[in-house]
Structure formats: C-alpha cells, structure tokens
Amino acid sequence: MSISVQSTAVDGTSRQESGARLWAMVLHARELPLFSIGLLLLFVITGIFGDFISPHDPLRTNLRAVLLPPFWEETGTATYLLGTDHLGRDILSRLICGAGVSIEVGFSVIIVAGLLGTLVALLSGYIGGRIDAALMRLCDIVLSMPYLMVAIVLAAVLGPSKENIIIILIVLGWASYARVLRGEVLRVKEGDFIRLAVIAGASPVRIMFRHIFPNIVNTLIILATLQLGMVIITEASLSFLGLGVPVPEPAWGSMCAEGRGYIYDAWWIAFWPGVAIMLVVLSCNFLGDWLRIRLDPKFRQI
Amino acid sequence: MTEELLAVRDLKKHFPVTKGIIFMKEIGAIKAVDGVNFTVNRGETFGLVGESGCGKTTTAKLILLMERITGGTIHYKGRDISLLRGSELKSHRGSVQAVFQDPFSSLSPRMRVKDIIAEPIVVSVNAPSKTAVKEKIAELLQLVGLRKDAGDLYPHEFSGGQRQRIAIARALAPDPDLIVLDEPVSGLDVSIRAQIMNLLRDIQDRLGISYLLIAHDLPVVQHMSTWVGVMYLGTLVEIAGSEELNENPVHPYTKALLSAALPHHPAHIREEIILPGEVPTPFNPPEACKFHPRCFRARDICSSVPPLFRDIGGGHFVACHFIDDLRKI
Amino acid sequence: MKMKPILEVKNLRTYFYTRRGVVKAVDGVSYELGEGETLGLVGESGCGKSISCFSIIRLVPAPAGVIVGGEILFGGSDLLLKSEEEMDRIRGAEISMILQDPMTSLNPLFTIGDQVAEPLQIHQKLKGEGLREKVREMLNLVRIPSPEVRMKEYPHQMSGGMRQRIVGGMVLACRPKILIADEPTTSLDVTIQAQFLRLLKEIQHTSNLSMIIVTHDFGIVAKACDRVAVMYAGKIVEMAGTVELFDNPEHPYTAALMKSLPKAGMRQNRLYAIEGQPPDLRTLDSGCSFAPRCPRAMEICRKEYPPRVEINDGHTLSCWLRKGEVLND
User: Fold this and answer.
1) Share of chain C above pLDDT 70, in %
2) Are A156 and A242 in contact (CB under 8 A)?
3) Distance CA C56, CA C308 (A)
C-alpha cells in the first residue's frame, strides 16, 4: 500500500478550516486547482474571442486620452477601466488581444515541440542503439545551449515575427520533452506486455504507438502544461527586448517594454501585462504540479 | 503415441563479458544456458525447475525467439526455428505464445481487454474479419471463465487472478500449439493459484495444447507437469516423469532440492541435505560437472570429465558419473 | 502447555483512511506470544497480517494508517500508550523486525560492518574495539564466512541469501526479546530458504527468542512455527497449535486453503479451488467476511460475524458451524 496521499477524515468531509484548505489547495496542489483552471480558461477564452470582447480597438490611438490612470484613480474614467498608454490606447483591450498572441505562440509551440519530442523519445527509447545515441547527443546539444540567449540571437538573425518566434521556441523546446519521455519509454518498455506484444508478432511501429505511447501520454501532458508557462515567459521576454511579436500588435512582453519609460509616471502601463504574465504562468505551474500528482501512478493509488 | 512438438538440442546462450572501453577485450562469458537438451511432446507439459540464475528463464526466452541463440538447435514441428528471420519469423510468431508471472505488468494498462486478447490475431499475417475476431474473443472469454462484457473493461478493473485469466485468453487467441508458462501462478494469492492451475489443466485437456512450464516451486511443477527437468547453472542435470522424479531422484542436486522443499504437514519434515555454499555465478562457471564444488558425492573425475546426460530407462535422464551408486541409496 | 506470554495483542484495530473509503486492514485481532515461542501469521496479501505486525512496533504508514483501538501489552505496559522516544528505545533493542526484501533492507552506500554496528551504537552505546568485536560475533552467529573481510564489503557484493543473513545479524545484534519476520524467505531460493529458516530456529534455541513469522506459505508454518493464526480480511479466523491445525483445520477457509495446495510428487487431477476473490476491505458488511466464498455458508453467516469459540485446548476459531465455549475479548 503506498502512503503518499493525504487521508481525509473519518466521515469523508474535511474538517480543516477553509483558510487552511485554500492554503493546501495552493501549496500542495492536492485538491482540484480551481483557481488555476479558472484563470487559464479565462485566458484561453479571452485569447480566442478577444476581438469581440475587447471594449476598444487595441490599435486605435487617442491623443486626447494619453496616460489615463485606472478608473479608481482621481483622473481615471470608466471608459478606460485599466487606463491608457502613452498613445492613448486602451490597456484592457490590448491586454485582451495580447492574450491571443500568447495563446497562439504558447499552444503552437507546446503542441509541435511536444509531438516532435515524443517521436524522438519513442525512436530513441524503443529502437535504441545508434539511433538512440545520435538523437540523445543532439538533445544534449540543444539542452546545453543557454536558452534565452540563443533565442535572442536566432530572433535577431531571423527577424522579429510571430512565426519566427514559434519556430525558434520549437527548435529549442523539443529536447526537454525528448529527454524526459525517453526515460519513460525505457521504463514502459520493460513491462511484460511489451514482451508479449513482440511474441504475438506486433511490429515495432505498432508497439511504439499502440503500446508505449498511451502509457507516456500522462507525462507528456504534465510536461506540456509546465512548458506552456515557460514558453509564454520566453515569448514575453523576447517581445520585451523588441525581438518578438513586432509592434504595434499587442503582446504582453512588448507592452511591458513600452511601459518601462513611464514607470514613475504611469505605473499601470507595465503593471497590468506584468501581472497577466505572472498569473498565467503561475496557473500553468500549479496545474502542472496538480496533474503530476494526480496522473503519476506512484501518487495515484492507495 | 507421442509426437514431438518441440525438440531442443544442445542449446547454448553465452553473454560475452568485456573489459576496457576502447579496446574491448573479451574476458569471459556468462554461460546462462550451456548445452540443454529436452523434448516437449504434443499435449504434454514439460516443467523446468531450478533456482534463480539457473538459466530457466533464458531458455524460455530463446524458445520464444526473444534472444538469439549462441549454439544448438530448436526444432518446432520438425523445423529449426532458431534461424528464422524477416517474413518467416513474422509468420512463425503467434504459434508459440507465453504467459508471464506478473499479471499486472502483462497487460497493456491503456488497452481494453478485448483489444488485448485480439492483438495476436489482429497483427498476424492473415488477419481474420472483424466479426470473426469478435466471435473468437467471446469464445475465449468464456473458455477462461470471464464474463462476456469483460472485454469492454480495462485491466485495472480486474484482480490478479482475473488478469491472469485474461493473459491466458490472449495466449490462446492465435490457436498456438505450445504455450510457455513462466511462473504463471507465483504472482498470485494462495487461494487463487489453484483456480489458475485447474484452468490451465482444463484447457490442456480440451484443446490438446502443450505447455513448457518454468517455475521455482517444486510442488507446482510436479502437479502440472508430465515431465520435469531440473536445471543447475545453465545445464539440465536430470529429467524424469513427474512422479518418478519425486520417488527416485538420482542426481545429488535433485535430491537436495527435493529435501529442501517445504513440507505440507509438520509431521512430514524431511531430512535435509545441506548443500555447502551458494549457487556460483554463471560467469566462468566450474569446469566439467558444474555441481561438483557443492556435491556430497564429488570425486576427482567430476572436476575433469563432464558427465554424459544418459537415459537410465523410461526417459529418465541423469547427468552424473555415479548414477549406479546413487540409485542404490 | 501454557507459556508465559511475552506479548499480548488485544482487539487491535488499524484502519487506513483513504480517499475511497476506510480500509479496515486489521479489525479486532487478538493473540498472545509465549516466551521462546514461534507464532505463524498466515494469510493472503491484503489480509492485514503485515499491518498487524507493523502496528506492534507502531510503524503504520502515516498519515493514512491509524491504530484506532486495542492494546499491545509488552512487559506489562501498553505499547500503544508509549511516547515516540520510548518506542525508539524499544524498536531494534527489544522488538526487531526482518522484512521480505533483502535487497532494499540494506543501505547500498554503507559497509556491512557499519550497518550491523549501527543498532549497537544506538542502543548499547558501544565504541571502538568492543563494537568491532560484537559485530564480528554477530556475523559469526549468522554464518557469514570470514567476517573480518566481509565487514569491509558492501551489500552489492553479497548474494541474496547472504544479505538476508546479514539483515538477521543486524536485527539480532541487540539481543531483542521478540523478532518479527515479515515474509523473511519469500524472495529467497528454495535451498537458501531452508538454510535461513534453520538459522533462525538455531538462534531462537540458543537465545530464547520469541518470533512472529508472517507468511502466505503453509510450508513455512509446518516447518518453523509452534502455533498458527490464520487471517482473513483483517481478522483472525482460526488459531491453533501447528500440528493440531494441520490435522484438524476447522474453519472452512483454512480447510479449503490447505486442500488447494499441490502436494509434492502427487499429480492430482484437479486441485480444490476456492471460488471468487478476497473481499474489498472497504465494503465489508456485518456478516462473516468469508461467507460469500464459503461452500457451507448459512443464513446467519451473512448477517452476523461469528464469535470466537474455543473448541479444543488452544484451538480457537470464528465460525457459526462450530459450537464451543465463547471467548469474549
């Protein structure tokens, strides 16, 4: 009997104080992380339907309303709930549309890099031998490169565009999936059911995709969730440095960069996108941790 | 009238051991299987018994063509299967099936039971139609004593004994003539073992298939097998009919093994033959008779001349220099 | 023959609080262990035999497992009321435990000498030459050849049997009064198992040790135990002297289990098989937990758990089929 899952009390309901429960929810990620799921849902929905929900055109400048503070400040107005930037653009609208950019980059990168990494892991782990050695050395090379610096150099060489960012992050991102998943493949491969599949006459392709893949999907999902936050941060960093999504398209990173010069006079320009990045990344990490505990067979049973 | 189904002759499997990183020098070999001879007849069970490291599992792997042999032959239905490659190998697969010890690791956790059972048929060279497969699954589930709707469930919804039934159904799917049973009941609870042993015997009676049973538990092997082979350090030291082995064991190692078996009643505790030391590793094992360093009968000849594996009558084979002396005891 | 009990377990209950319900792993277990006596606790996996032993030394996996009731009297006081510090002094020094797996019972990073020395340093505060002398003595006791050399070696340099003997040396180093052995020979080979059991018995005779052997194997009971308690679903269903139990198994579960074992050298046609599966400990009702599998179950068996009755001197069982003097505990 494994011993890692916390017990609930005798009658099945928890007698903990609600404050302690919240704390446990955030820290131990044992209960369903409603906070993270809610926030990520909000993020995805605003990202997809951004054009319809944003109160203003995120690109339209209004020079009569520059540097307006959020509505609760003395000079703020309800028209621009979170204030305006130095060109009079509505920050809330830009934030909403910026979510779309983050989602586009984030999801395309984790999906493509994840699939690529899985394929490499399957080939490397199951076939083994020289293929394994070659792929893993490649993996080592990618993983040993200073991530952000290489991304900056590549972005500078390829030129700033959304597509280029996606390509760069895929090129740098697959290796971490491949590394971790290869270990999983090696573990799953030792199962008797793989030996029995060989005896039954199943082909290597069938064994890889029908037998091994379904057993590493959990790990893949956990990794992807954790990587999503990482990708969003990297994209924001590149945009912050002017190497990411080109202006004027709103991206959280470039919004922070624009607000940097006004940080003493108009804190809200950089503040809101910063908060947005932090919350989304934090949610990804919480959700990832929770999934790890729920999906990991070592933690699952008692 | 017995018909030979599987004939293993002088089977060898050596794993080379190398030293050094750049100039790899072979310094010896792990002789996991070192000259094994036995025959499995149609409709019978041949049991291989021995302690861990004696090579019984490697022998099974060689017969299942999961490892390449180092020497010898494996004739199945009169054809040497040890050299099959490519498409010939693919069409041979399926005709020898296996059931392993651990019922939890034997079934793909993410596949439905019906897909697990059907796999050996689905992947075969001439796969039957979907309806035929479906009928076959229903028939197999009934044969192993599971409910019809069990096919739609996942393995984790079953207990150990039921999972072993699923594994047996899967092994039977391609209508094999031989099933290798590698410790089929030692991963199960005591009260479930009898169920599975009975099931295996019933299936054999009904379908006339043969088993190669590998186990460390002597009573289980003797109960299940027609013939029993005793392995020690990669070689067979004795083969005899199940009852004959129990009543007239000849080889000193067999005698020791029998005497160490646990009694089934406190009044039946046998006088133990105490073997000095432990089983040596199969890496560069003792010369000639491999048992001589621990044998209570060992003489000079044992360390210089390997004993012949001789038939002493009625299919009772023994590899020992002192057969005549030992039979009198 | 009434022996002075050294350990008395009274109505012990250990539950596991899991997300999917309360598992009553040990539910009202009572027994006595006499001085110098060997008690066998037999049962299938999940019947609570191991957990009841972990409860004695208060090492139930926390936080899910909780000892919810009962008394464990050792040397006149209740172990369940002791503080953690007091338990630390008792564990290893007065009550010791051997676990099933000799591979994980030893720390791979320390030498054999260091590991055998550890309990002596903690409990007897030995140092220097005195400590070394004692370690050598313990290794001699468990028949480790050339202990002087072996002391400086690491666990991976030893075979499984030797490791289990070293574990034996470790737990016996402080001369405990009680040794609890949880499946001590399950992972060992047949001949090594016999060696180890004999070693335990010899040490027991020379040092008047009391032992509890937890096992699923009636063979080990027949060979090594004076008295047996058979457990099923968290309760002791039958308890008797070993010979008495083997001669007259009265509880249907005990009787069926014994009938289901293959006997060495007898190729019976079918084994007696107990139908069904062991129950889920989360969903037990008020009746006898064996009733759903019992061929002789009656109306009352499904409604009410049978009281413990004494049918012979020292032979107790819980079954409605037998009338006897009701024991209330």
Assistant:
1) 97
2) no
3) 22
Domain ranges of chain C: 5-94+176-326, 107-174
- End-to-end distance of chain B based on CA atoms, in angstroms? 33
Are the Cβ atoms of A200 and B102 closer than 8 angstroms? no
Summarize pLDDT for B217-251 with one digit per residue, the tens: 888 999 999 999 999 999 999 999 998 998 889 99
CB C15 within 8 A of CB C22: yes
Question: According to the 3-state scheme, what is the secondary structure of A51-86?
Answer: HHHCCCCCCCCCHHHCCCCCCCCCCCCCCCCCCECC
User: Can you tell me the mean pLDDT for C245-265?
Assistant: 88
Q: What percentage of chain A reaches a pLDDT higher than 90?
A: 40
Q: Which parts of chain A fold into alpha helices (H)?
A: 18-28, 34-53, 91-122, 129-144, 147-158, 162-189, 192-200, 204-206, 213-240, 252-260, 268-295, 297-300
Cβ <8 Å between B189 and C270: no
Instruction: Specify the pLDDT at position C206.
Output: 86
Pairing state of beta strands B235-241 and B227-232? antiparallel
Contact predicate A64/A88, CB 8 Å: yes
Q: Average pLDDT in the A246-267 region? A: 88
Task: Tell me whether residues B94 and A201 touch, CB distance under 8 A.
Answer: yes
Q: Which of A154-163, B294-303, C88-97, C320-329 has the lowest mean pLDDT?
A: C320-329
Domains and CATH numbers, chain B: 4-95+176-328 (3.40.50.300), 96-175 (no CATH)
**CA distance linking residue C169 with residue A185, whole number of Å:** 40
Which residue do the tokens 């009904």 mark? B206
Geometric angle at alpha carbon C86, from C84 and C90, rounded to 5°: 110
Contact A200 B66 (CB under 8 A): no
Interface of B with C in 124-163 (CB under 8 A): 159, 161-162
Per-residue pLDDT, C228: 95
Number of H helices, E strands in chain C: 11, 13
Residue B100 contacts A, CB cutoff 8 Å = yes
> What mean pLDDT is predicted for residues C52-75?
89
Q: Are strands C325-326 and C308-312 parallel, antiparallel or unpaired?
A: antiparallel
What is the DSSP track for B119-150? HHHHTSTTPPPHHHHHHHHHHHHHHTT--GGG
* Of residues A233, A230, A227, A231, the one with CA closest to residue A276: A233
- Using the Cβ of B268 and the Cβ atoms of chain C, whether some distance falls under 8 Å is answered with yes
Which C-chain residues 9-28 have CB contacts (< 8 A) with chain A? 16-20, 22
Fold type of domain C5-94+176-326: Rossmann fold (3.40.50)
The stretches of chain B forming alpha helices (DSSP H) are 56-63, 86-92, 113-122, 130-143, 160-172, 190-207, 218-224, 242-247, 252-260, 323-328
Closest alpha carbon to B38 in B9, B58, B65: B9
Task: Tell me the pLDDT band of A29, cut-offs 50, 70 and 90.
Answer: very low
Kindly report, residue by residue over A80-122, the tens digit of the pLDDT: 888 888 888 999 999 999 898 888 999 999 999 999 999 999 9
Rounded to an integer, what distance in angstroms lies between the CA atom of residue C167 and that of residue C161? 10
Give chain A's domains with CATH numbers.
Answer: 34-300 (1.10.3720.10)
Chain A contacts of B167, Cβ < 8 Å?
Answer: 196
- Please write the tens of the pLDDT for every residue from C294-309: 988 999 999 999 999 9
Mean pLDDT (chain B, rounded) = 89
Determine the pLDDT at residue A22. Answer: 54
Distance of CA C327 to the CA centre of its chain: 23
Q: What is the residue whose two structure tokens read 């019978």?
A: B44
- Residue-wise pLDDT tens digits, B12-47: 999 888 777 667 777 788 889 999 999 999 999 999
Reading the block at residue B63, the tokens are 């017969």
Determine, for residues C264 and B222 on separate chains, whether the beta-carbon distance falls below 8 Å.
Answer: yes
Q: Which of A282-296, B181-195, C7-21 is least confident?
A: A282-296
